[in-house]
Design goal:
One of its GO terms (cellular component) is cytosol. By secondary structure, the protein is of the alpha/beta class. The chain has 7 helices and 28 strands. The strands form 8 sheets. A 6-stranded mixed sheet has the order 7-4-6-5-9-8, with no helix packed on it. The protein has a 6-stranded mixed sheet with strand order 16-13-17-21-20-18, sandwiched between helices. Strands 22-25-24-26-28 form a 5-stranded mixed barrel. Bound molecules: ligand LQZAQKY5 and molybdate ion.
């Protein structure tokens, strides 16, 4: 009996794009010290050149490169020292042929000079005479005005995820605050009569709630604001009440468990009762994660995640995180992958895409990836894993020695 109309993960990613491309997140202005990890809601154009003046990259003497051509230790170039550049100040010095001026690292180059010779390749004969022992070429040891960032250039586009170095670049152009999308707001509901909070005493037959905590951590790391979480019994009214109460305050709700077709699995019925457009897919041709539900109610997303802890986290990474990228209008989705050599034969011939947890072992110059074998209900499997490998639906497994790409966890 086929209980789900399963769809491939890539197809569901396309459907997510279709349904949520037009999603509108409001924006907020943040000071630079709070903007790391946030996504820009507008293009950033530089109003200045960086640097705003030609600068030296070394401690040395600014000069005309042509005056050093052909010089050597045995035949130094003699130059007149006409002064010194002070850090943080504009210099009015002008270098003519045969002249030079001392300039510290980062100091402004005097007009007329086009290169800097490093101090160690010079010999100061007296206060006004310098021997240059090694030639320099034009622009050597110099950063020109606008070399780093040009005035009127778009530094970052809308949808850019701000990394620590980007915060530095914003500081460099004198931007003290930026407009970013507010964090997508989510809420997690763990279902299951057997599920209890780790703060409670566990009785036989009960299990501690794992999924709330793994998903909460992963979603926070991905830039979501999880405004809360709760537990619902395997009862239609309880789950429906919890969702309808929270829905107006969030952009997405994640329900863990009850996604399958057992007599107590009420998630589908509850989602179907919430409104339109309703369920986008119930069922993925993937292992693990087959019973996953993806739905849209109004403009909000409702996720029915499989209860097994490994399945829930894998699907969160494969589908929910890309959904966040879509509503945040991210320029690009970064997936951190590394190449490794597969360690042992592993069959996968069920015609579904499969994600296999792996442990990585460094060996000489390569990484060896070995599958971690176990059922998708085992959270320790995931804790031991360094990443996972995707085996496409049309591939009958992986052979020892094959090169594989590992998505890091
Ligand atoms: N007849 C079928 N049965 C099942 C199928 C199927 O295709 N046909 N699919 C199996 C697959 S695959 C999965 S995955 C599970 C998913 O089931 P549900 O999403 O309905 O999840 P539950 O039944 O509520 O729970 C499954 C399992 O996971 C434990 N669980 C649930 N929530 C949590 C939590 N928050 N923390 C820790 N553990 C949790 C729960 O106790 C169950 O052991 O369905 C298969 N069945
Ligand atoms: O999602 Mo299930 O884990 O394929 O057992």
């Amino acid at each position: 009996m086929e209980m789900f109309k399963v769809k491939p993960v890539d197809k569901v990613l396309e459907l997510l794009k279709e349904h949520f491309d037009g999603f509108k997140l409001s924006t907020e202005n943040l000071l630079l010290d709070a903007a790391e990890g946030r996504v820009l809601a507008s293009d950033i154009k530089s109003k200045i050149d960086v640097p705003q003046f030609n600068r030296s990259t070394v401690d040395g003497y600014a000069l005309k490169a042509v005056d050093t051509f052909g010089c050597s230790e045995s035949l130094p170039a003699f130059l007149e020292i006409i002064g010194e550049v002070n850090m943080g100040e504009e210099t009015k010095l002008f270098i003519e042929n045969g002249q030079c001026a001392y300039v510290p690292t980062g100091g402004m180059l005097p007009s007329g000079s086009d290169a800097v010779v490093m101090l160690e390749y010079t010999e100061k004969l007296d206060d006004i005479t310098l021997n240059v022992l090694k030639p320099v070429s034009p622009n050597q040891n110099v950063i020109l005005k606008g070399d780093d960032i040009k005035k009127n250039d778009i530094l970052f586009k809308k949808g850019h995820l701000l990394k620590p170095q980007d915060i530095g670049a914003l500081a460099a152009i004198g931007k003290s605050s930026v407009e970013v999308f507010r964090k997508p707001r989510g809420y997690i509901i763990s279902t299951g009569d057997e599920i209890v909070s780790p703060t409670e005493n566990l009785r036989i037959g009960q299990v501690n709630d794992i999924n709330t905590y793994t998903m909460l951590s992963e979603l926070k790391k991905a830039g979501a604001n999880i405004i809360g979480h709760s537990h619902a019994k395997d009862r239609f009214e309880d789950l429906k009440h919890k969702i309808t109460k929270i829905l107006p305050d969030v952009d997405f709700v994640i329900i863990s468990g009850g996604s399958s077709v057992g007599t107590k699995d009420v998630t589908v019925d509850v989602i179907n009762s919430l409104g339109k457009p309703g369920i986008i897919t119930h069922g993925l041709s993937v292992k693990p994660g087959k019973p996953t539900i993806v739905a849209k109610i109004g403009d909000k997303a409702i996720w029915g995640m499989p209860g097994h802890p490994v399945s829930a986290l894998v699907i969160l990474k494969r589908l929910v995180l890309p959904f966040l990228d879509i509503i945040l209008k991210k320029e690009k989705q970064m997936i951190y992958k590394i190449k490794a050599v597969w360690g042992q034969n592993y069959p996968s011939n069920h015609g579904k895409e499969e994600y296999v947890m792996v442990s990585l072992t460094p060996s000489e110059e390569i990484l060896i990836a070995n599958p971690l074998l176990g059922k998708s209900g085992l959270i320790s499997l995931m804790s031991k894993a360094d990443g996972f490998v995707k085996i496409p639906a049309n591939k009958e497994g992986l052979l020892s020695g094959e090169e594989v790409e590992i998505e890091l966890l």
